[in-house]
Design goal:
The protein is α+β, with helices and mostly antiparallel strands. It is built from 14 helices and 13 strands. Strands 1, 2, 3, 4, 5, 6 and 7 form a seven-stranded mixed β-sheet that branches. It has a six-stranded mixed β-sheet with strand order 8-12-13-11-10-9, with helices on both faces. InterPro entries: Kinase-like_dom_sf, LysM, LysM2_CERK1_LYK3_4_5, LysM3_LYK4_5, NFP_LYK_LysM1, Plant_RLK_LysM, Prot_kinase_dom, Ser-Thr/Tyr_kinase_cat_dom.
């Protein structure tokens, strides 16, 4: 090889290395919910080891949950120094955090092969799979693909309680382009429902444009999804996070004005139509009564099955009446909720959250809007034994499914606390026929159909055991 060829080859290698060091990290998108997708060309396995340094100080954000709600448990889960967690969050090392409180976790991020990561060990619990571990326990600070890559010979279905696995936590070090503009740290942030690049950047005083660049997102309108993580570039170490108060609930829609009285001919047609409809309705009611009486005599008794109903959950009768005042039975029901890490609320807390279940907070049926710890929730009153549904719903963790976050028992009734769907029910949008502004384009309808199918696929394929949605 002559000298000119050698110089050209060295120049090409130097150019490639420089380009890699200056490159940013691609946003992973919805691939985190598709564990069986073989495409790992982007950051689904972790952020590329392309920074100026092969190891650095980085930061994570973790939302406190019942099993991981104090400095010690969070530091053990994420392999962080408890004294550093206490110092940066301005608490003591024995402090306990409120549920869903955002906790800053300092970690040492380093290259492992081609990717930056912070390896931590995790002991498998009953019902765990790679999807649940990544998106529920670790709150999208890892991915099911990355965890599977660390245990290539152990499929998700073969995990057993007590088994210890390695979980790679997503982190990264600044690239040359970032350090040149004063970026010294990168923070891995788990995106919550409804958040945007701008709102996330504002929590840390970061420049939204730099956040877009760090994640290779094209513009401020780019969508970031729940159950994904976002890199936030910082000039200085983050400080304790203060979340702004949520906006007040939207006012109820005004009632449509009454139509002015029409002429006598219009009234005549109304009377005729009402009479016809009333007669048809009466015939239908009689037919239904006869059918129900006949069907109830011939219907065979079937064993109950565990199934996931819609948000208007099926209410099953109690085998043992709640009205019998059995304190042991009530205690056993509460212990079920506590054993699956659901928050158990006092009834007075729900009364305060709903303004004593006032009509202004009524949504539909027995469902009420509430504000708990500054966040909107929906509270459903249910009469009957829903312990099996509670155990099932608590295992469901998917961006296309409503989550159950807490329970309460009072005077023989269950009160189920769900996450709040701020945009209302889907049926209101699909079947809207007024001028309220609710309109879905065909593109929106196709996207919704795809989201519904994704949620059903999760119930059928990734819950253990699989569950069938009957509604």
């Amino acid at each position: 090889m002559d000298s000119s060829s050698l110089v050209s080859l060295l120049t090409l290698c130097l150019f490639c290395c420089c380009s890699l060091i200056q490159a940013q990290q691609p946003y992973v998108g919805k691939k985190t919910t598709d564990c069986r997708n073989p495409d790992t060309s982007d950051s689904v396995l972790g952020y590329t080891c392309n920074g100026v340094n092969r190891s650095c100080q980085s930061y994570l954000v973790f939302r406190s949950q019942p099993l991981f709600n104090n400095v010690t448990s969070i530091s053990n889960l994420l392999s962080s120094d408890p004294s550093q967690i206490a110092a940066i969050n301005e608490v003591s090392e024995t402090a306990t955090f409120q549920t869903n409180q955002m906790v800053i976790v300092p970690v040492n991020c380093s290259c492992s092969g081609d990717h930056y990561q912070r390896n931590t060990s995790y002991i498998i619990q009953s019902g765990d799979g790679y999807f649940l571990i990544a998106n529920s326990t670790f709150q999208a600070l890892s991915t099911c693909q990355a965890i599977q890559n660390q245990q290539p010979v152990i499929p998700s279905e073969s995990l057993t309680p007590g088994m210890r696995i390695t979980v790679p936590v997503r982190c990264a070090c600044p690239t040359r382009n970032q350090t040149d503009v004063g970026i010294n740290y990168l923070l891995s942030y788990p995106v919550a429902e409804g958040e945007t690049v701008s709102s996330i950047s504002a929590l840390f005083g970061a420049d939204p444009e730099r956040t877009l660049e760090a994640n290779q997102l094209p513009d401020p309108s780019s969508t970031v999804f729940f159950e994904t993580s976002l890199l936030v570039p910082l000039r200085n170490p983050p400080s304790r996070i203060t979340v702004p108060s949520p906006p007040p609930p939207p006012p109820p829609s005004p009632s449509p004005p009454n139509s002015p009285p029409s002429g006598s001919s219009d009234r005549t047609w109304i009377y005729i139509l009402a009479g016809v409809l009333g007669g048809v309705g009466l015939i239908l009611v009689v037919c239904m009564v006869i059918f129900c009486m006949f069907f109830s005599k011939t219907k065979k008794k079937t064993d109950p099955i565990i199934s996931l109903e819609s948000f208007e959950a099926c209410e099953k009768p109690l085998e043992k009446s709640l009205e019998d005042g059995s304190q042991a039975f009530l205690d056993s029901m509460l212990s079920i909720a506590q054993s699956i890490n659901l928050k158990v609320y006092k009834f007075k807390e729900l009364q305060v959250a709903t303004d004593n279940f006032s009509t202004s907070n009524h949504i539909k049926g027995s469902v009420y809007r509430s504000v708990i710890n500054g966040d909107f929730s929906a509270i459903k009153k249910v009469h009957g034994d829903v312990s099996k549904e509670i155990q099932l719903l608590n295992k469901v963790y998917h961006s296309n499914l409503i989550r159950l976050s807490g329970v309460c028992i009072n005077d023989g009734n269950w009160y189920l606390v769900y996450e709040y769907a701020a945009n209302g029910t889907l049926s209101d949008w699909i079947f809207n026929r007024d001028d309220s502004g609710k309109y879905l384009s065909w593109k929106d309808r196709i996207r919704i159909a795809l989201d519904v199918a994704t949620g059903l696929n999760y119930l059928h394929s990734f819950t253990n055991p699989p569950h069938v949605h009957k509604d």
